[in-house]
Amino acid sequence: MSLSALNPILIVEPEELQQALKRRYPMYDKDLFKSKWVLITGGLGFIGSNLAIKLHQLGAKIEIIDALIPEHGGNLFNVASIKQYIKIHNFKIEENEAALCEIVSRQDFIFNLAGQSNHWDSMMDPKLDLNYNCSSHLTLLEAVRNFNPNIRVIYSSTRQIYGKPEFLPVNENHSTQPIDINGIHKAAAEQYHLLYHKIYGLKTVALRLTNTYGPHMRIVDTRQTFLGYWLRCAVEQREFEVWDGAQRRDFSYIDDVVEALLLSASNDKSIGKIYNLGSSEHYSLLQVAELFSEFLNCKYIVKDFPKNRKSIDIGDYYSDCTLIKNDLNWIPNIDLKTGLKFTFNFLKSHICQYTETYAISE
After folding, report:
1. Three-state DSSP class for residue 290
2. Is 70 exceeded by the pLDDT of residue 74?
3. CA–CA dist 361, 220 (Å, integer)
4. DSSP label of 26
5. pLDDT single digits (tens) 205-222
6. Burial (0-12, 13-18, 19+ Cβ within 10 Å), 232
7. Residue 88: HSE in the Cβ half-sphere, 13 Å Cα cutoff
8. Topology of domain 3-22+31-354, per CATH?
C-alpha cells in the first residue's frame, strides 16, 4: 500500500491547515520585532529554526549561533527558505567569547535555545553536558551583562528539572529534583538566568518546555524525543518500540511554543519569571501509539523499560500552564492529532533531509 493511500491523517487539506493556524493566538505588537536585531542560539535546530522563520516574517534582522553538532539536531535545511536573509555563525559559544561579545553587543533580543537535551548522553559524558548546558550559558550571560545589559533574554528550559512529579498537573511551585545529569545542568542554567536578573537586572525569562514536536524536529533516533523517532518509523512504515507505555505525557506543537517565546519577549510581565508550557490534553504513550496505528497504519511492539533507562525516567508528567495563561494570555491552539498531521506530511516530503544527512548511530 502506498503512503498516500493510508488513512486521512496523511492528507491535510490546505484550508484545514490554514484554519488551524488562524485560531486566535494571543496578541502582541507585531511591529515589535520589525528591523530589530535578534540572536537565536541553537538557531539551526528544531525550535530555533521555526522561531527564525517566524521572526523573519515579522521583519526582524536575525543572527544565529549554532555549532552544528549532529546529535543536537542543527540542520541548514531548516532555514533554507530564509538563508539569504540571515547571518549564521558556526561556533561553540563557550569557545569563542570574543566573537560572541561582538555579536551580542548589537542585539535587541536574544532567544537562548542552545544546549544538549539527551538524558542518557548526559549520564555517559557528564563533563561534556556541563559544557553544553552550563558553561555556554554563563558565557552568554556574561557577554550580555558586560556588553548589552538592557536586552531581553529568553531561555528555553525543560520540565525535566522537576524530576518525578509529586503531584499532577505540575505547576511552577513544584520542587525541582532532577534525576539525571542533564536535568541538573538545565536547572543550573535556568537559575543562572534568574540570578543575573536578580543581581544585575538582566531582563531574563525561562520557559519550561515539554515534549515539543513539529516540522524540523530531529528524528534520526530517540536522543531528543521518542515522538520524532516514531514519526520517522511511520513515514518509513517500520515498527517502533513502546517502552512500558503506561506513562502519561502532554505535548506542545511547535507553533504554540514559538508564540510563547515571542510573547515572553514582548511582555514586561514575563521579566524574571519562569513559565510552564504544555497542554491541557495528556495521553499515555500507549494511547499515542494507538493513534499512530489507527491513522498511520504503523505497527508497534510493547517492551519492558530497559533497566538503565528506567532509572532516569520521570513517570507520568503533564503541566499546569495557568501562570502563562494569566500573565501572557498564552494558550495552546494545536491539538495532538492535528499537529501529528502537519508533522507527518512535512517529514514525508523531506525525509531524506532528516535521516541520511544526520544519521548518527546510538
Report:
1. helix
2. yes
3. 9
4. P
5. 999 999 999 999 999 887
6. buried
7. 22
8. Rossmann fold (3.40.50)
| pLDDT at residue 137 greater than cutoff 80 | yes
- Cα separations in angstroms, 275 against 13, 139, 289, 303: 34, 23, 29, 34
Taking the C-alpha atoms of residue 324 and residue 196, their distance in angstroms, rounded to an integer, is 21
Cβ-contact 327, 273 below 8 angstroms: yes
Backbone conformation region of residue 216, classed left if phi is above 0, alpha if psi is from -120 to 50, else beta = left
Which ranges in the chain belong to alpha helices (H)?
A: 14-21, 46-57, 97-104, 119-124, 126-130, 136-147, 181-200, 226-235, 254-266, 285-296, 307-310, 322-328, 336-350
Helix (H/G/I), strand (E/B), else coil: 85: helix
What is the sign, positive or negative, of the torsion defined by CA atoms of 19, 21, 22, 24? positive
**Mean pLDDT score across all residues of the chain:** 89
Cell numbers at 259, concatenated: 508564540
Separation of alpha carbons 194 and 204, rounded Å? 7
Using a pLDDT cut of 70, give the percent of the chain over it: 90
- 215 and 346 in contact (C-beta within 8 Å)? yes
Residue 198 CB: number of other CB atoms within 10 A?
10
**Would you state the pLDDT for residue 78?**
97
Cα-Cα end-to-end distance for the chain: 31
Q: Is the pTM of this model over 0.90?
A: yes
Compute the average pLDDT of residues 67-85: 92
Contacts of 239 (CB under 8 A, 6+ apart): 233, 298, 299, 300, 301
HSE, CB side, 13 Å, CA atoms: give it for residue 113. Answer: 28
Distance CA 161, CA 155 (A): 14
Q: Locate the domains of the chain by residue range.
A: 3-22+31-354
Q: Which tens digits make up the pLDDT trace of 230-263?
A: 999 999 999 999 999 999 999 999 999 999 999 9
Rg (CA), the chain: 19
Query: What pLDDT is stored for residue 331 in this prediction?
Result: 94
Q: Name the residue among 229, 227, 239 with its Cα closest to residue 302.
A: 239
